[in-house]
Amino acid sequence: MPQLVLATDDDGRPEIFASVQGEGPSAGMPVAFMRLSRCNLACKWCDTAYTWHFEGDGRPHRDGRVFDRKANQRTLAIAEVAERIMALGQKRLVVTGGEPLLQAPALAGLAESLPDMTFEIETNGTIAAPARLDIHIDQYNVSPKLAHSGNPAELALIAERLDAYALDPRAFFKFVIAQPDDLVEVAALQRAHAIPPGRIFLMPEGTDSRTLREREEWLVPLCLKHGYRLSDRLHIHLFGDTRGT
């Protein structure tokens, strides 16, 4: 049976924990979190670079730090992962990364092991979930990467995938915004893929409360103008930029 490759917390334990969802349409909900390792994209501002920016990876990141793969990954059997999740006593599971859908076959096995769990997937929107997994997913949080992420558009913005997510009522779009001009790109993507404005969230890029608050001051008028929704980052205000929160 496939295994799952997880990210680790600061103590080297697999990153499976209970908290409240900090972003998007489920913000504030009590959930179990599972963070998987590895990503097919490389955002310059990624705040979980320990899931992919390993030694030997030449893709750029703004702080230049690289991580030891062995120290930042744990491979576990599906049954053990399911047991750890159930021990948290939550009814909703948020699977994040990295890019979780890189491990879709093993995730499907996990979903089959947790039939009563509500599944929420965080994805960059470049990969389609196979049918065996898709039938178990209750919510997709799709975060297409804009130009300021540093990813080439041909890798990060795949029209077929964005069209499919736009048609799926389970999918919400969460755009990381660093400056007001980023809205030009968001509006163009909305038009090109017919994304309903009410399923679009604008979220400030930042890993400290001050930066988030400063950017939200000018994001609110933009939400009012375009009919988009605002997403804060509650976990940053509550716990700072830390693992396992």
Write the layout of secondary structure elements.
Elements: E1 3-7, E2 16-20, E3 30-35, E4 73-77, H1 78-87, E5 92-96, H2 104-113, E6 118-123, H3 131-134, E7 137-142, H4 153-156, H5 159-167, E8 171-177, H6 182-193, E9 200-204, H7 209-226, E10 229-230, H8 234-239
Parallel strand pairs: 3-5, 5-6, 6-7, 7-8, 8-9, 9-10
Antiparallel strand pairs: 1-4, 2-3
Helix pairs in contact: 1-2
- The CATH superfamily is Aldolase class I
Secondary-structure arrangement, i.e. CATH architecture:
Alpha-Beta Barrel
CATH hierarchy, class: Alpha Beta
Helix content class: 25-40%
Average predicted local confidence, pLDDT:
97
Low-confidence stretches: none
The Rg value, from CA coordinates, equals: 17 Å
* SSE string: EEEEHEHEHEHHEHEHEH
What is the count of helical runs? 8
Largest sheet, in brief, is:
8 strands, mixed
* N-to-C span: 29 Å
Summed up, the domain count is 1
Strand order in the largest sheet: 2-3-5-6-7-8-9-10
State the shape: globular
Number of separate strands:
10
The share of residues in extended strands comes to: 15-25%
| Class derived from helix and strand content | alpha/beta
